[in-house]
Amino acid sequence: MIIQVKQDITEVQKERLIKEINQIGYKITEVITQKGTYLVGIGSAEFDIRKFGHHEGIQDIHIVSDAYKLVSRKWKVNPTSIDLGDGVYIKEGDMAVMAGPCSIESEEQIVKVIDHLKANNIKIMRGGVYKPRSSPYAFRGLGIEGLKLWHELASKAGIKIITEVMQVSQIEEMMDYVDVFQVGARNTQNFNLLDELGKVDKPVMIKRGISGTIEELLQSAEYVFSGGNEKLILCERGIRTYEKATRNTLDLNAVPVLKDKSHLPVVVDPSHGIGIRKFVHQMALAGVMAGADGIIYETHEIPEKAYSDGQQTLDFAQSSQLASQIRKTFAMRKTFDLL
Amino acid sequence: MIIQVKQDITEVQKERLIKEINQIGYKITEVITQKGTYLVGIGSAEFDIRKFGHHEGIQDIHIVSDAYKLVSRKWKVNPTSIDLGDGVYIKEGDMAVMAGPCSIESEEQIVKVIDHLKANNIKIMRGGVYKPRSSPYAFRGLGIEGLKLWHELASKAGIKIITEVMQVSQIEEMMDYVDVFQVGARNTQNFNLLDELGKVDKPVMIKRGISGTIEELLQSAEYVFSGGNEKLILCERGIRTYEKATRNTLDLNAVPVLKDKSHLPVVVDPSHGIGIRKFVHQMALAGVMAGADGIIYETHEIPEKAYSDGQQTLDFAQSSQLASQIRKTFAMRKTFDLL
Amino acid sequence: MIIQVKQDITEVQKERLIKEINQIGYKITEVITQKGTYLVGIGSAEFDIRKFGHHEGIQDIHIVSDAYKLVSRKWKVNPTSIDLGDGVYIKEGDMAVMAGPCSIESEEQIVKVIDHLKANNIKIMRGGVYKPRSSPYAFRGLGIEGLKLWHELASKAGIKIITEVMQVSQIEEMMDYVDVFQVGARNTQNFNLLDELGKVDKPVMIKRGISGTIEELLQSAEYVFSGGNEKLILCERGIRTYEKATRNTLDLNAVPVLKDKSHLPVVVDPSHGIGIRKFVHQMALAGVMAGADGIIYETHEIPEKAYSDGQQTLDFAQSSQLASQIRKTFAMRKTFDLL
Amino acid sequence: MIIQVKQDITEVQKERLIKEINQIGYKITEVITQKGTYLVGIGSAEFDIRKFGHHEGIQDIHIVSDAYKLVSRKWKVNPTSIDLGDGVYIKEGDMAVMAGPCSIESEEQIVKVIDHLKANNIKIMRGGVYKPRSSPYAFRGLGIEGLKLWHELASKAGIKIITEVMQVSQIEEMMDYVDVFQVGARNTQNFNLLDELGKVDKPVMIKRGISGTIEELLQSAEYVFSGGNEKLILCERGIRTYEKATRNTLDLNAVPVLKDKSHLPVVVDPSHGIGIRKFVHQMALAGVMAGADGIIYETHEIPEKAYSDGQQTLDFAQSSQLASQIRKTFAMRKTFDLL
Q1: Domain DAHP synthetase I/KDSA spans what residues (chains A, B, C, D) (predicted)?
Q2: How crowded is the C-beta side of A227, counted as CA atoms within 13 Å?
Q3: What is the ipTM of this complex?
Q4: pTM here?
Q5: Fold entry, domain A2-62
Q6: Nearest CB to A215; choose among B245, B285, B336
């Protein structure tokens, strides 16, 4: 059960309401976000929604039987729009193109990528300064200093930054230098991290777990939302299967399913999804047709020299062509009037 | 190693050639198909291709190190075109739309589907007369009598038939009434069936196994080709993973990979690939953008009343819209000059 | 619903019974096996079992809601015992050790294996004469002549034969030379083969599909049983997962689950289950503790020279040690009074 | 390359050595643990080990080509023994039984479990005070206060504590109250957490990721070891597959493989591995036969009333029987002289 309360509800009204709901065996979690206040009720008894609907201070009341509640489209039909400022959005009805290197490497590299993005009207740059690596001996990123440099260069150019946060202690130091926090596939169920990201007023994109289910992705988003942060984006980036001809199995089925179940925007990452440079193009366009609201991919001036993920990174010529074709494909999709 | 021999090679020349190849430790399988004669050499020793190239009677010689040989694009760069007659093709550069019910049910049903296909300029009808069912108590199809009736009605209408063959003994009786034999996902590694289909002169579409790898699909095609039948089509229909929100996980990554590795046309089945009616549309169009040469999907006048697979079957209005959008998407993809 | 009818039921009684059951919306399949006659009712309406129980000619009536019926332990509590003659059984409460090479190769090889088995009191020999191979260019087995030779040598030595049948046409020619037909992992859902094996009076061991579920294995057994053959054995041989450090993932969980759901004996194949010689031993013993009624493994005089699967095949010294330890482990398990 | 240096190596000697190794293109990470100092060299050039072996200050030098180095058995043949004090060990050649509830719930519950453990000579108690839950609305554990209470009661009784740590900030506060830190399956690749656990002198048991590979588990252990903490234990707890008849697929194959690849002790968790109470018993004993050095399982006075995981939790009578049978099975395994 989700009860959206009015801005001007009094404490007394709220307490009376909660008490009454508790009486039917429902436990209430109060959620205060940037946009509203919600009482989320967890329980299993059946009840008549009209029993509570007449209470003062209630704006709306919904029954949501899914394990995830606040991220469900069942109570919030209008899609969530993520506003990054300066007219940059990630939202349904729009196509957000996000591109950049796997790792942020140097000032020169950042400048070259920014120039490429500007030339192609790409407004959001991806890149890692904290890199999760399966081996402790691998390059782990430039860290906060790299991020500050990147932010300085990007903000001058009017480019927004999306980058991965790996642990709670990084949130505060990164806060002023990122436009979107990314939660990586190995941290989709790092619940402490999700809890803390619920407390900040900054968009968060959550990647699907390495072998995460669609439902688990939605529940991870629920963690952040119930912590107080509604500014959420979901990302399909491929799952682990028995097939080894590709790095991951890009599960584009997840796109229409997520769009149907949730009001949050959905982004596709074809670079990790297939992991082979020459096929990223097809999978990006397939992602658009599957219903994605954004595409995030890897590009680098000289992919062969990238510190990481070179095998799946596009060069700038390929990236220019892809960005253009993503937009054309999206324009056609809009005429089809699909979800 | 693949040696394509000339039409007029003499037996003496061929024997001399085989003997010499045997001497470097390669075992030769002679393959005679509708289109040519090939000597496939299996071995591991390295050798100088020029050593054999000068022999009389040789048209071409290629080193193919993949486990699959004759279906590889490494020796045959030109894509294979499947000609069903009357100007109907399944081939690269074209978009074959194939639609029809899961099961063939009755004359009335067949007639209605045919009318729908004709109205939408769809030339190939799918449908099952032998149904593989996990339970022995489920409907198993109308059998050969249903196929004969279907063939009579379809051929009058100029519609081609693709339908599943489940066992060796059915091949002969079905032979005159099908345009494309389909090998189902549970029979992808039914090697006896593949051997026998190698002996007929009729196109065969092989579906990827329920949890088959891309390489296994190519090796299954190799079985049919090496048996003597080059007229092959590959089909991605979703694989089995841990994700249960959808019936299967449609692995569109497989499309560009298969197109890259093989000269055979590749078809996508979004109906089985996602298994949920309202999302078939998006996955079909995603399949087109991923590079498919054809789309095969399920349609029925009243999906709710279909004998099987109703939950993933489009009604005729949805099918008409989809067929049109598949073609528009394909037309756009062609302008992108992708694989 | 399963109705076991009495031997002396009259046709009139049976027809009356069937008619009455049809009236509540259940479809009846009559199954006649070596051991009895059953009416299997498929439907979804709830009904009072007493409504039919009073009919003449009925021995027993059970409600079985699983998709599989006749192989369920819900109606047949007593475990099925497979009697191979000469005091050789595969059954609960006993430990059947089955060993032999992957492929039958030559008279010399057969003789050596038989001598090894006799020396270790192993009564059942495994081996392949028809080999399913993913590549058409690989060794496919000695065929029926190899089987005849093997049978001659084995029957003299009092050794029983279990071997794979790959297609319907092989059943009749193999019939007189095998003691147990094996259905391989690629044929678990070859429903035509299962149908035909339902018509013969010879034990059938069905291996779990390469990525088959436990329920699918039971349904495949249901095919054979409902075809008329109750003499069935189930085999866990590892499933396909993302883990590539081992050939397959031996799913020993399946053993207690299958034993709980079905009255059929369950065998474990550790050789295919892990695929690495030095670890077969541990997995065989683990299989015993998981509750297996039999262990089937690969052994060869010189594994390195085996035509196939050498990497997972034990030499005779290893095999002798394993057979002894399997029995000791089983003897201890019996004292534990587990399922 | 792993170079174990002598205790009395001088800084000058060490610098000279590192410089020389750098010259062949290897990057050196210096690792100082409770037990020794190691230089781990990462590079790909081939070199003659004798080139460095003569240097002063070197105790041993090994080439380890695996991605994981310090946890490999290739350089350290002797198994790692984890000493918890008071004669309690987790080590090869021994069988550590660890039992307790999923969640720590109350003083009364703790006391009852401790009494049960003492009565059965079980020395290590498991239990969660921080619970990773996929839903934000579920019970998340008693936290640090619960741990303190538990520690007070357990230490009086001579019982050791193993419990999950979920994030970096918990390490310090938990430090004095745990005997073994557990890293849960959702945190196996939480690299920041692993880094920090490398800095403490306390044993750490790492569970295999929900769909983690065997190699990833070893690399996660490498993180902790290379951070300075050698006191490591690996735990197989089931992986995610397509099979839904059981909670997870317990991959017992992993046990002999891990024992072969690494010198670290390996523990099996049958409770999460199968997730069904009545089958935990068989899987525990199968784990012993597969080669486990310890078994960790869930028990509760009244499983039906447990706050979490009740469906897979044994009652005390079942637990007593299991502990005894684990020991008997292990005693028999020892006579078999397996790995």
Answers
A1: 88-331
A2: 24
A3: 0.95
A4: 0.95
A5: Alpha-Beta Plaits (3.30.70)
A6: B245
